[in-house]
What does this fold into?
Amino acid sequence: MSLGSARCSCGAEPVYLDRSSNIVYCKRCILRHVYRKAVRTMKNENMLSSGDTVLIGLSGGKDSVVLTDILGRLARKMRDLNLVAATVDEGISTGESSYREEALGYAREVAAKFNVPLHVYSYRELFGGTLDSYVRLRVQNGSACSVCGVFRRRALNEAARRLGANKIALGHNKDDEAQTVLMNVLRGDLERMLRTAEGTHELVRRIKPLRRLSEREVAIYAYLRGYGFQSVECPYSRDTVRDKVREVLFELEGHVSGSRDALLNFEDKLRDVARAGGLYAKCELCGEPTSSSRKLCKVCEYIQEFRRLSGLNPEPV
Ligand code: SF4
Ligand SMILES: [Zn+2]
Ligand SMILES: [Zn+2]
It folds into this structure.
């Protein structure tokens, strides 16, 4: 990255160039900028209320580590904000060890630094099998990620219930969010878009404090704070559509500055519409919300299928 001869507005040596505004920042100022932007997003979108117990979805990847750091710092100032964290162990083997193992080390480190109690929940314990075992049995079309995503969502809801949290904080950044909006548009999947929009139908509200921070901003924050990065990739991660969408958005942002923010604004407006209308019904088996056109939620469908494929009798969960 070439920062030329420019100085940070405070006069110090710059370490970061914001491409959209062409502003350079020194270490101290970029850390403050990222922290303040996250806090402002939480404020603008009324993400926190006094007395909240927030469960942090702490995978141990850089986004969730930065999220824990920022909420941890905020909790030092906001005395009535309670934090707990959960790591979900999917049960994915990468040969010698579990895929989650390395990330769990980073999760433990940041949780300990801010005195946030960390709990680990596994798919095996919650749903009766590891993701690996399920993928081995599953003969139908559909990627591991779609099953994994559905299970993770439920695992975090269950964790929140067990730990008494009234909100779940996720580390999604602006790039992830803009990609998801565009992917849903490309699939023509309005229901999924509404489902993934923050807090539209979940029993426990989702908040995404980093959703207005770019991936670069989150990465520089993690790097300058000295957090480690996960080196092992999930063996199932082969999301070619997302990769393509990422490329397209990158290119688009170069021509139309602010296009990622515009996609997020679009999602926000849809969410408001969804909140006002009755787009959701209750799953007949577990009572969790599902789209009004379905009888069973996706988790119950998968578990029924899992039991059928394993030779067990399908039964309510
Ligand atoms: S890449 Fe897919 S399968 Fe792997 S952890 Fe992420 S969602 Fe799960
Ligand atoms: Zn500065
Ligand atoms: Zn269900």
